Here is the input.
Amino acid sequence: MIALEKRPEPSRAWSFATPMLAVLLTMIAGGLMFAALGKNPVEAIRTIFWDPLFGEFAFYYRGQLLIKAGPLILIAIGLSIGFRAGIWNIGAEGQYIVGAICGAAVGLAFYPLESFIVFPLMVVFGALGGFLWAMIPGILRVKFNTNEILVSLLLVYVAEFLLASMALGTLRNPDGAGFPGSRNFRSYPAGFNEEIIAGTGMHWGVVAAFIAVIFTYVLFARHQMGFQIKLAGQAPRAARFGGVNPARLVLFCLGLSGALAGLAGLFEVSGPAGQISIDFNVGYGFTAIIVAFLGRLHPVGILLAGLLLALTYIGGEAAQSALGLPAAAIQAFQGMLLFFLLAVDVLTNYRVRLGKREAV
Amino acid sequence: MKRRSLLAAGAAALALATGGGFADGHEKTKVGFIYVGPIGDGGWTYQHDQGRLAVEAEYGDKVETIFQESVPEGADAERAITQMALQGADIIFTTSFGYMDQTNSVAAKFPDVKFEHATGFKREHPNVATYDARFYEGRAVIGTIAGHMTETNKIGYIASFPIPEVIQGINAAYLHAAKVNPDVEMVVTWVYTWFDPAKEADAARAMIGQGVDVIMQHTDSTAPQAAALEANNEGGRVFTFGQASDMASFAPAPRIASIIDDWSPYYIKRVGQVIAGTWEQGASWGGMPEGEVVIGEITEVVPAEVKAEAEAMIAAITDGTYHPFTGPINKQDGTPWLAEGEVADDGTLAGMSFYVEGITGEIPN
Here is the structure.
């Protein structure tokens, strides 16, 4: 007989151990799946987890890892602040898109002016775009008590149509022979988010992600606002008596997560993606929700979770072309990782008891 | 800039380490494919993968093929292509329009690898070639069949992106449908995706709801075929055409014919040139004469005289006596485009951004 007994306090030891246990379990279950597909499981796991970091082409993959993890971490950090306060911004993908559109539009408006001011302006407007897009669910929630989950999510689809319209119309490259898509920032140095140290993948978006991690850490450890956020999430009534202004908190959390998502979009469009195109967004805003929870809403956890998820993407792609694994097998593998993380979470909150269940 | 030289240095180091020859010393010619959809999409990507298999069948031990499916057309594509080049591919086919800038950007870093980009127009480096097929030839044939088959005089067109390749298809289909049925109306729905079964099915159902009874698609899944089948099972009368692939499992109806992209001849030719060391940059635009655009079986649901008319057109396009864009043709706003007997030049077709006279609605912009 196996029984679960709730721990009075979540176990600190297990909360550190479970992510590693989950990765291990994923390797075993994933290895079995790869073996069932007729591939060498050890080689597949090595290709996914080892080669991108230490393999022959690690000099290329390490940089790609940062490029992929940067927007995930930046968005997830913003989301985690709201999630801790019980404010659920599910529409980061939309804020990411609108931030990219606003920032890129400002940059393209200056084309072909070569001035140091162009890129900083783009950054400001990228953040502003995401902020304003997030203010829609924020203000609706504060004024009319609408559900921010639904409003922010539905605004993603609106943002996608806005993106299509921009790529086909307003921001379309006038020298592009009628093809959709804006000018490419690669050919406009003043607006291009160049790698700071060449070959490392370290562009301004990655720097911003690291700064956000540190800033959030300090916010929760030292700042009054951080305390209010935690209080509002854990004990809403107590928070109200404690002088927390709920409307201000909603606007702060949504606005901040929107601005960070907008920044992520701007850094992506002006750097790795290079241009506004119809399918510019690839789901970072949604994946970041997973990253936020994987990192247990803790800034350092999110940093690691973002890197881990990026690794499974990069390594998964490598496994596809190197070993001929189908794309679906890689997605299933990523799914397993999340599944096991949530599953072993039970060990953090519960104690496993073997033997007879004691009478209560 | 430095990143480029770093990559180039990496590639050079590999070449040195193996004493020349192929980048990583393998004996087989490594052929890479980047796909926009899953190989099981039953349409566009499936056909490219058939081309890959044909290359394997043709050259056997001399080649090794690798592929990556469902690669998004954005920053991720650049990494996927780079990855293949790093893994030692000698030639890489990037099989969707949206890989254009990424293909050229990776090509700059790997001057010894050959790149072939499907349906694009940028060849910024000597190691980048482009290739495309004259799908509009097939559209002319199925447009003719559609014009005859419609009873409601409404033909639906599920369009992906407003790029010249798609607009050519809409125009060719409409011109030939209207030629045999002047009352025909073209209902165009833009879905902004190459492969999204849910969106494609929604578009098909919405069209059927508006009274459309013949549906064409420029998207890659079989979902519109399934939606039409569903409508027919409920007593409807809707016809479709296989797109990119034969989609024969929906024959004899709703699928009454199909436009098949056969990339095998081109892939076999180009890989052969890499093996022989005679590959050169080029811009290929083959069609029915080259065997790259093929009309699949026209089913018994289509009346014999319509089938005969379609087959006559296939023969005429194949032997070069008929061009689907032969004047007189006016643009949508009524301004003349092609005079009597005049044939469209490839330059205009490759940049086509206008509807022909008679199509209602606007190209989104």
